[in-house]
Design goal:
heterodimer; B: 13 helices; 2 strands; 1% strand
Chain lengths: 294, 340
Amino acid sequence: MEIFGVPLQALMSQLLLGLVNGSFYAMLSLGLAVIFGLLNVINFSHGALYMVGAFLAYIGVTQFGLNYWMMLVLAPLAVGLLGIVIERSMLRWLYKLDHLYGLLLTFGLTLLLEGVFRSFYGVSGQTLDVPDALAGATDLGFMILPNYRGWVVGASLSVCLATWFVIEKTRLGAYLRAGTENPKLVEAFGVNVPMMVMLTYGFGVALAGLAGVLAAPVINVTPLMGSNLIIVVFAVVVIGGMGSILGSIVTGLGLGVIEGLTRVFYPEGSEVVVFVVMVIVLMLRPAGLFGKEK
Amino acid sequence: MNKKILCMAALILALAAPFVAYPVFLMKLLCFGLFACAFNLLIGYTGLLSFGHAAFLGAGGYVMGYALTTAGLPVPVGILLGVLASSLLGLVMGALAIRRQGIYFSMITLALAQMVYFAALRAPFTHGEDGLQGVPRGSLFGLDLSNDLVLYYVVLAIFVAGFALIVRTVHSPFGQVLKAIKENEPRAISLGYDVDRYKLLAFVLSAALAGLAGATKTLVLSFETLTDVHWTMSGLVILMTLVGGMGTLVGPVVGAFLIVSLENRLGDLGTWLAGVTGVEWFATLGESVGVVTGLVFVACVLLFRRGVVGEIGALVESRRRLRVRRTLPVSRADGSGTPL
């Protein structure tokens, strides 16, 4: 069976690959949006922390004999802790200043983290094996689904939706949203806002760490994997706007799919298609698809 | 008065420098100095943080290289075309990026510059990973540019012209409007200024000067590679400006000199530190430029936001105020003096 001269099998597998990438975009842009909402900081080091998550998974599995499932919990926790240290020791001194200093600081941290991992692992990629339970593929009739890829999409979507649920539907999320609107007033009501800010940053970067662990078996783990991704995620954020949680998730997934489709029909354009979409959105709807300018 | 003496001293130093130091290294410093000044025109005087200035440096450099090698055009035409290309690119990128404010502006410029990077990687005339090699230096108005000393003075002239243009712009009424936009954009709008046009013009001017720096750099080094269009270059120019002092005229030049020297001499510095302290790790410092630049970046943002020149300016200013207070105990000196 063919669609527009492309075998259905090939189309479906690229579409799936697009969905996998899209779930990473969604998780990272979600974390960026949550952090920006409360801290007013664009976390450039998000990509580097995603890389750290992937490397921790690799190190845990290959050097310490831990298995993938343990690292799925431990690596995001470690990345979250690292985030909390960063927030406590550096970021919080910059809240009163112009937003761009937060961007510059986290950019410096990105160079630092990448440099450290580069001096240990060089630029060549490391690979992590897919865990046994998810090895192999399932025949769905119209396509062969590699189990691990299905798991990545399912797991990231569940995490994204859970985050959405917590932020939009629970008491904790209500505090968080109130803190985004008016931190001083929330503090006056007795909520420990600095603590909330710290935990939010920790949670946001833990999401990036989790995305890194999920990505480790499907891509080459290299020190530069994060910054290549974060630039695309920035474009995703510009397209979607950071005002809405669901908006971030939908935009991330949608752009992943668009990228996958481009790889089928015009492979040369797949690297830049997200940027092209960004240009089009900027021309037609400058505030972004779900945007509320802050 | 003092400033004039300082300017003269700097100029004499620049004229004499190639007899003391390696001219190619000095020319590289001048090119990056001009690049950082062009960048500072946006961040320091208009309040726009562009994260995509590598695109302009690269556009100028690639077009210059292509004009001289494949098209065989003379040097002045090559430089002109390089500046033209980066200005056009600046016009397109600027027009898109100023549609959003603040932090989004930075993200858009970064994403657009990444597009330019992929274009440079894939386009046939840039030779992808290899870059343009063996760009001839040729001659300029009968001067033989293959002589390092002659080329140095040409590059110095280009630098001084670019720097003078920036000084003139900053002190012109146009520059005052830019400063007003930086201080308070809604107010500038309410005063009737078409803010977007001013921003766009500043962006194009900055892009053109960055392109001039890129074209000159290609002429000096005889090659142009992907390094110049990579996002790390955009980060590096931010670091240069930050280290030297954002919003000061000579700060970016000082910053560029410091950072380029640091990158070049890091290996020697590491060996020296390893010898003095006995810590083995320092010997590997030359290979971990990223770690060092990252640390400098973090330290600057946390402790040292005014940069070298900004700190010196603040010091001079506070001493001046102290003196004024001593002589005139009743009058309150207003501390809005402009830094150097």
